[in-house]
Amino acid sequence: MCSRKRHHHQCLAEPILRCTKPQFCRWLLVLAMIFFATPYLGHCKEKESEPATAQVTGPLEIVFPKDGAYLGAYVDFGEGESHVTYDGVKAFDKMIGKHLAVIAFGNFWGDQEFPRRTLDILSTYGAIPLVFWSPWNKPYDEERGPDCFNLNDILAGKWDAYIDQWADEARQYGKPLLVSWGLEMNGLWFPWAGYYYGAGTVVGQKDGRPLFMGPELFKKAYRYVVDRVRARKADNIKWGFHANHYGLPLENWNALSNYYPGADYVDWLGLSVYAKMHRSEEWSWFRNVMEDPYIELCQLDADKPVIVAEWGVGEFPPGDKAEYFRKAFADMKSRYPRVRAAVYWHEGWENKDESYTNMYVNSSTKALNAFKQAVKDPYWIGFPQYRQRHTEP
Question: What are the Cα distances from residue 15, in Å, to 2, 6, 9, 19, 158?
Answer without folding.
Answer: 22, 16, 11, 8, 78
